[in-house]
Amino acid sequence: MTSHGPMPGPTGTRRARWRDWRRSRPFTAGVLITVAGVEMLVTLRAPLGVVLKVGPQGLAAYLVPTVLVLCGVLLLATPQQRVFYALLTLVLALASWLTSNLGGFVVGMLLALVGGSLAFAWTPAKRPPGPRPPAPAPDTESDDGLAIVRRDQTDPPATPEREHTDRPAGQHRAPA
């Protein structure tokens, strides 16, 4: 009989770590984008008579699917940059229509569009709010400005002595 609860021992821990890692990034989007790029690369090299020669078959035909695979892998590795990778994926998926055999016979293009959309829509899981740490105690050796605001001390803060001059207020001495 098998149990569906967490498994004791290192296997259960490994499974929990894998689940936590997978949920901390747009996993499905990254896999779909990577599969789309691989599918487009495979259709370029397919020994079929059905392979279409649409658009420039040079560098762009291999560059678009290769960058899609790279976007999928980088999406899994650095989910903080998901918006950039998602937008790049969407643009490349549409460009693959012209460069890579109608987007890998439409299948690769659709996979990349769905993966890019999922990546763009994904947000990190919000952590439940835990207890807040206690606020730090106020500094007992406060500066004079804070003492004025708080009116803690009876003595006013020391002010610099003003120089007595015969000049009226607002007129300053020219620098020497």
What proportion of the residues form beta strands (DSSP E)?
A: under 5%
Q: Which outline best applies?
A: elongated
Any low-confidence stretches, pLDDT <50, length ≥5?
none
Query: What value does the Rg take, in angstroms?
Result: 32 Å
- DSSP helix count? 7
Amount of helix = 55-70%
Count of distinct strands: 0
H/E topology pattern: HHHHHHH
Largest sheet: none
Mean pLDDT comes to 79
Give the helix/strand class.
Answer: mainly alpha
Q: Tell me the distance between the termini.
A: 97 Å
Brief descriptors of the model:
176 residues, mainly alpha
Describe this structure in a few short sentences.
With 176 residues, the protein is mainly alpha-helical.
What does this structure look like?
With 176 residues, the chain is mainly α. The chain has a domain at 14-121. 55% of the residues lie in helices and 0% in strands. It contains seven helices and no strands. It has helices at 10-23, 27-45, 59-77, 82-99, 101-105, 107-121, 144-150. It is elongated. The mean pLDDT is 79.
Write the layout of secondary structure elements.
Layout: H1 10-23, H2 27-45, H3 59-77, H4 82-99, H5 101-105, H6 107-121, H7 144-150
